[in-house]
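User: Please fill in residues for this 303-position structure.
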C-alpha cells in the first residue's frame, strides 16, 4: 500500500494594496484544475480579480503561487491522476470555504499521432488525465454539491469532442468521452440543482500544442499527407492560434453567471463554424440512411 501523498496548501489572503478586497462569504467558490498555463491560469486570474474565492491547483504549486496575491486564494498541489491528492484537495477546499460552487475540470493534455502510429502507453496516459482525472474530480466534488443542492460543473472539452481530425484520433476519443459523460451527468444532476456545462474551444493560444502534447515516435510515410500534415500544422500554429485565452475565460465566467447558462459553450470562430458544419454533415448522412434505419425494427403489428 502506498502512502497518501502530502498535499501542499497555504491560505493566501495578502491583497494588492491598489485593489484591496475584503473576504465575502457570499462570493462563489471556484475550484479549477490545471492552473499552470492556458485556460486554467486565465480562469483563476479572472475569478480572483472578480473577488471569487478560488482554489488554484497545479501539479507544481510554485508555478501558480504568484496568482494568489490577486485575491482570496487557496493554492493546492493536485495531480488529477492521484486519488489521494484529489480527496485531500476537495477536503481542504470544503474545510476552508465551506463548499465548492463551481468545479472547472480543465486539466488535460494532447497527443498527436495517426491511430496506427499511436503508442498505448501515451494513449493511456492521456485517458488517465483527460477522462478518468475529470471523472475522479466530479465524483469527489458531487457529494458536497448534492448535500447543498447546488453547484456548477464545467468540463473543458474541445471542438475535437464534436468532430474528428487526422493525428488526433485518440485525443478525439478522450474528448468524445467528456461529451458523453457530461451529457449523462447533466440529466442525473440537474434535478438536484447542479448545472453542467461543456466548453468546446477551437484553437487558442495556450500550451496545448506545445510542450503539453507529445507525439508518436513512429511515423508512417503512408500517413504523411493526412496525420503528418495535421501534426506539422498544429506544431507550426502553436502560439499563433486566433483564440484569446483571456476572452475565453471571460466568456466562461459570463456563461456561469447568466440566468440560463448554456449546456454547450462553443469558443472561437473555428469552433462555431466547425460544429455547425458537423451538424450539416450528420444531417446528410442520417437522411441518406433513413429508410434503412427505420426498416431495422420489428414490423409493427397491424391493429
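Assistant: Residues filled in for all 303 positions:
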Amino acid at each position: 500500500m502506498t502512502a497518501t501523498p502530502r498535499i501542499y496548501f497555504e491560505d493566501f489572503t495578502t491583497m494588492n494594496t491598489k485593489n484591496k478586497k475584503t473576504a465575502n462569504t457570499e462570493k462563489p467558490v471556484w475550484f479549477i484544475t490545471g492552473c499552470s498555463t492556458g485556460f486554467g491560469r486565465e480562469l483563476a486570474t479572472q475569478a480572483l480579480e472578480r473577488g471569487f474565492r478560488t482554489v488554484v491547483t497545479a501539479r507544481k504549486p510554485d508555478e501558480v503561487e504568484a496568482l494568489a496575491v490577486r485575491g482570496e486564494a487557496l493554492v493546492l498541489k493536485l495531480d488529477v491522476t492521484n486519488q489521494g491528492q484529489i480527496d485531500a484537495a476537495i477536503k481542504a477546499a470544503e474545510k476552508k470555504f465551506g463548499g465548492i460552487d463551481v468545479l472547472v475540470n480543465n486539466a488535460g493534455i494532447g497527443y498527436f499521432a495517426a491511430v496506427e502510429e499511436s503508442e498505448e502507453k501515451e494513449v493511456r496516459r492521456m485517458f488517465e488525465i483527460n477522462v478518468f482525472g475529470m471523472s475522479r474530480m466530479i465524483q469527489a466534488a458531487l457529494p458536497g454539491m448534492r448535500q447543498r443542492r447546488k453547484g456548477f460543473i464545467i468540463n473543458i472539452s474541445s471542438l475535437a469532442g464534436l468532430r474528428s481530425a487526422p493525428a488526433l484520433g485518440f485525443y478525439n476519443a478522450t474528448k468524445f468521452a467528456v461529451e458523453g459523460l457530461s451529457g449523462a451527468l447533466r440529466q442525473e444532476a440537474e434535478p438536484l440543482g447542479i448545472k453542467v456545462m461543456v466548453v468546446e474551444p477551437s484553437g487558442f493560444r495556450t500550451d496545448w500544442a506545445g510542450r503539453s502534447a507529445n507525439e508518436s515516435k513512429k511515423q508512417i510515410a503512408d500517413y504523411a499527407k493526412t496525420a503528418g500534415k495535421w501534426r506539422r500544422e498544429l506544431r507550426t500554429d502553436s502560439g499563433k492560434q486566433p483564440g484569446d485565452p483571456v476572452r475565453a475565460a471571460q466568456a466562461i465566467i459570463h456563461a456561469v453567471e447568466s440566468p440560463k447558462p448554456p449546456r454547450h459553450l462553443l469558443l472561437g470562430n473555428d469552433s462555431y463554424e466547425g460544429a455547425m458544419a458537423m451538424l450539416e454533415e450528420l444531417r446528410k448522412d442520417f437522411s441518406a440512411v433513413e429508410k434503412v434505419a427505420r426498416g431495422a425494427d420489428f414490423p409493427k403489428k397491424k391493429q
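For context: The chain has one domain: 9-293.
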